[in-house]
Amino acid sequence: MNNLRENLKEQIIEQLNLEDIKPEDITNEGDLFGDNGLGLDSIDALEFIVLLESKYNIKISDPQEGKKIFKSIDTLASYIEKNK
Amino acid sequence: MNIFITYGGLISPLGNNVNDNFKNMLEGKSGISVTKNTGFNNEDLPLGKINNIKGENRFDKLLSKLCDKLVLDFNKSIFKDKKTLFIVSSTKGNLDDLPNDTFSSTRRILKEKLNVKNEIIIISNACISGVIAVNTAADYIKYNKYNNVVVIGIDALSNFITYGFQSLFALSNEASKPFDKERKGISIGEAAGCLILSKKELNNIFSVIYVGGSSSNDANHISGPSRTGEGLYRSINKTFNRANINEKEIDFISAHGTGTIYNDEMESIAFNRLKISNIPMHSLKGYFGHTLGAAGVIELITCIKMMEKQTLLKSLGFEEQGTSMKLNITKKNYKSRLSKILKTASGFGGGNASLILKLKE
Amino acid sequence: MKLIASCKINKTGVYLNSQLISRNDLSESNWITELYYDSNKEYPKFHKMDNLAKLAFLGFLFLEKKININNYKDDEISLIFSNASSSKTNDLKYINTYTNKGNPSPSLFVYTLPNILTGELAILNKWYGENIFFIQQKFDPKFYIEQIKFYFSKGAKAILAGWVESNDKNEECFLFFIEKKEGKLTIEKLNKLYQNE
Question: SS3 for C144?
């Protein structure tokens, strides 16, 4: 299960070109978006949707839905576990 | 010194010339229709598609078609005149030419079809390209470099653009409804239009006067509209100053109005800050869809036609107020004195632009 | 119009006012990213940019040392840019995402316009001035001088002009900063600076 979280961190770094960030810099609970988090923005949220579809075969059709799902690594991982 | 501006041609889903387009718009017809299997996942999408252009190189075919019309409608000597400059406004050119340059065919077609002698200037500045192409054309006339400047605005439909806007979740699943409460996004369209700016009025064709224009960046985000409308606010203010016109003199606003939640909201905020939100205004994206690099040009063509007929066109698709700031969006066509029109545009890269046209005294 | 400074970046190195100030390590395939790390500037968004925006961003970081942008209000500097290949390099990358890799990438799509680089410079500096992007067959000093005159007469106090090109054979960035002061900017001078002479 923790593997999923670690994989997600690596996939996010690759998908979003976060070259200055290492997987260990991303906590499971911390905010991904906003100034307190990784500083991700609305376009990054759309890349998360691409990532979910290409790597996990999960389709999100409303970007608004993504806001809660992409809050942190934990929320993202539990969403994937539920919808796989 | 006056700078005259007139329409040269317009090819869109609503017709192959300016008059047919305007007639169809007066009748409330939209060029947007559901097009089968055009989405990335083969969705049926509403698009402003010109149906009689088929196969590859749509862009080149559309440009050639416009040039053929121009040759029929104008004396060819104006195009090959050394004192005539050509400016093309387009976001992408012919994408089918990739990996080669996508604007080589533009230069080739204009030279072949219209005998253009001078270097052709291409402006590619996202969705404000059309408006700043006209501002640039006016610079060349004002500073005495050319007697005539032909401005062509053109972009063609492509999977590239459609899939891209789909990936941004910016496409509407019905014909776009700018400024409306139920608006859901953009409908992508294609068109080619031509404006001619000149030092002396051209014979036998209606023209108006270009008074002034400007651009301003949002300095905010490369694709998201500013929450405060700062760039649009500043551009319109600058244009008022340059044109030496105040907001009370403006009879009508031809807004950008893409039909996305955030863009239209941004415009309502900027117009409200400028205290011009009570002036009648429309967006033409409900007729043509968003035609990107062609948009500013074909919307200005429509403005000039409205001034000629002294008739306001309604904002097609608008029913109910849908922005936080109240705007005076036109719901029906009507006769009205139109002596000064403000045109605005906003786009990716944080660009905003505006200009003012006025009737001859 | 007075030319205050220029910066040229290409595969061989960085040139400020034609003087080589750093040679690129040619064994590094990602020399653009190396230049960013050498600059010690922290700007995480850099990695999301396409090569055009990266080159313009880096060019500005070097040029900034030779100019005083604080002399100007936030809307007094106009940006006049051009290139030959539009956003071709990134366009091909974006096409690859939907033809080979699966879904069209939104973050690559937003860079499929050349004028995004002027947007990035405006965001970096909080500049609200005028911007324009032209597609030209080659670097054309005469054209820039003409445009600069237009923008000065429209009210700009200074101009950041640039040629930023990225294609399969060549990646280069040439930026120059001009103030509305006594001085003569010639075609020959601009050509020489562009060619690092």
Answer: helix
Task: Read off the tokens for C11.
Answer: 């595969």
**Could you tell me the residue range of the domain that residue B56 belongs to?**
3-198
pLDDT above 80: residue C27: no
Q: Which residue of B has its CA nearest to C152?
A: B139
pLDDT band at B137 (very low <50, low <70, confident <90, very high): very high
For residue B284, what is the enclosing H or E element? none
CATH of the domain at C184: 3.40.47.10
Residues B183 and B106 in one domain: yes
Phi–psi pair at C128, nearest 5 degrees: -110, 15
Q: CB–CB of A41 and B221 under 8 A?
A: yes
CATH number of B324's domain: 3.40.47.10
Q: Are A8 and A77 in contact (CB under 8 A)?
A: yes
Q: Which two tokens stand for residue C29?
A: 């395939």
Nearest by Cα to B125 from B117, B135, B111, B116: B135
C19, C125, C183 from C5: Cα distances, Å = 11, 18, 13
| H helix runs in chain C, sequence order | 31-39, 51-64, 88-99, 106-109, 116-125, 141-154, 187-194
Smallest CA–CA distance from C47 into chain A, residue? A17
- Whether residue B14 lies inside any domain: the answer is yes
Q: Are residues B238 and B166 in the same domain?
A: no
Quote the minimal CA–CA distance from C99 to chain A in Å. Answer: 13
Domain count, chain B: 2
ipTM of the complex: 0.97
Contacts of C152 in chain B (CB under 8 A): none
The partner residue sitting opposite B103, judged by closest CB among C86, C95, C150, is C86
Q: By mean pLDDT, which of A44-48, C23-27, C45-49, C75-79 is the weakest?
A: C23-27
Domain end point (choices B132, B166, B198) = B198
The residue of C133, C164, C166 whose CB has the most chain B CBs within 10 angstroms, and thus the best one to mutate to test that interface, is: C133
Q: Is residue B212 part of a domain?
A: yes
* Digit-coded pLDDT (tens) for C144-162: 999 999 999 999 999 999 9
- Do B244 and B97 reside in the same domain of the chain? no
Which residues of C are less than 8 Å from A18 in CB distance? 44, 47
On the question of pLDDT at B2 being above 90, the answer is yes
Write the pLDDT tens digit of every residue in C47-77.
Answer: 899 999 999 999 999 999 999 999 999 999 9
Quick one: how far is CA B160 from the chain centroid?
20
- Is B203 a member of any domain? no
Q: What residues pair up with B217 in beta bridges, in sequence order?
A: B351
Sequence-distant (≥ 6) Cβ neighbours of residue B156 within 8 angstroms: B53, B58, B59, B62, B94, B190
pLDDT of residue A1: 53
> Which of B140, B167, B198 is at the close of a domain?
B198
Q: Is A41 on the interface with B (CB under 8 A)?
A: yes
